Amino acid sequence: MAELLPQELRILVAVAETGGFTAAAARLGIGQSAVSHSVRGSEGKVGAVLFERGRAGASPTPAGERAVALGRRILRLYEVLGAEARAAGRAGSGRDEPAGVLRVAAFRSAALHLLPPALERLTARHPGIRPEVRVVRELGAGTAGEVAAGRADLGIATLGPGDPVPPGLLGGVLAHETYALVHPAGHPDPRALPLLDWDENCGSYTRDWWRSQDWIPPATLKAEDDAMVLTMVGRGLGMAILPELSLREATEAVEIAPLGPGGPVRQVGYVTTPESATTLAVRALIRELRAEKV
Fold it and tell me: Which CATH code fits 96-175+268-291?
């Protein structure tokens, strides 16, 4: 099979991200016919249809989604190649210094409470690194999906039990968060209150614990995120079961009660691609994250 060239990969990514050949051409500053010709050539090389064409534009097929994800990752390697090569050339000189943009995806409470101290130490030790952090909801593919799709170099993710790192990625557990009951301060019977919840809360492995507890009612109110849940609890609208990182924003309007040794635990970790795991900036951030006390 003929190899796809960097410009062909850029065109595939642009079409996927803009939703059409004309928009991709405008982004790249080339003609629409050049985009069409390149995509047809890429499909011929790959041996699969990469985009569904229609009046509304172009959308990736399953083969196209995979090609675009790998294309982003390959293009990212082109971006970091120079910095990595220069650092290797200085090996042994004491100037093996990572530099450049480091793209991080994290769910909200990790972005607020876990990442900042690690990034503070990272940039103090390596001022050439420029972190870019995006908050990604842990729904569907979540932060791990951003890494797999080539939109992030490293993700802070909630990990399942057993073999927690998604296939094709590398990673490790950074912390185990216990859950606690949070309720309006001074309430005499918090377990009698309605349950407040949000879509990102827990996973199937902790939901199993929830279902085994006959005192936990079905969620009667749902919020956009954990911060809204805390605010609503403080207003006396109900009680909630939240992990430690979320509870760092608790105010005097709420009280926190442990759920005991049998309560659910959430694993928080990092994920990255095999190729990004070898880069100096990602390795440096992983060291700082592992040093962080959650």
Answer: 3.40.190.10
